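Let's practice the habit of predicting before peeking. Look at the sequence and jot down your guess about where helices and strands might fall. Then scroll down.
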Amino acid sequence: MATTTKKTTTTKTAAKKTTTTKTAAKKTTTAKTAVKKTTTAKPAAKKTTTAKPVAKKAAPAKTAVEISVTGNKKIGTLMKDFNKQFPYIRLGIFYSYARQEVAKGGTIYNIDADKTLASVRRADSGGDISISGNKKIKTLEQEFDKVFGLYVQVCYTTKDGHRYYTSGSLDDMTLSAFNKKCEADGCKKGEWK
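Done guessing? Here is the structure:
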């Protein structure tokens, strides 16, 4: 709300001198005249601000979940956890002799998903491993061989339905990078079964 302030200023008008010849000087002074000067206070300027566009904060990076692999974990649970973390790729878990069958061009089959890793691993193996997105495919496959004595392959399905496992330069990629590549290439989301 604006308030009005009156400012009063007095000004003196110049005194008039009137003289006549041969008579005494007659001095006439006019009275002081008060003049009112009214000043209106301007309302305070409203501070207007232009709304600046608020930069959206980048969504927090999806926290990489590390999958713990112990002997008491069921194979089906492991495959499901892996596929949840990396939806465009999947794990193929086989007995160690499957490696020779692949070399011969034979058919290999996944281990029963209801079995635990401890029940199917080699007798002389043991320990735990962890799976994270920054782990290379070949490192993961080697760890399964060393710790559990199992033949493991990272697999994917192309957009036209052909199923493959990684080899060559693909084995040098990290799990996250390969999952992103498969997504970009239009690969089908993996199924843990």
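How did you do? Confidence is low (pLDDT under 50) at residues 1-35.
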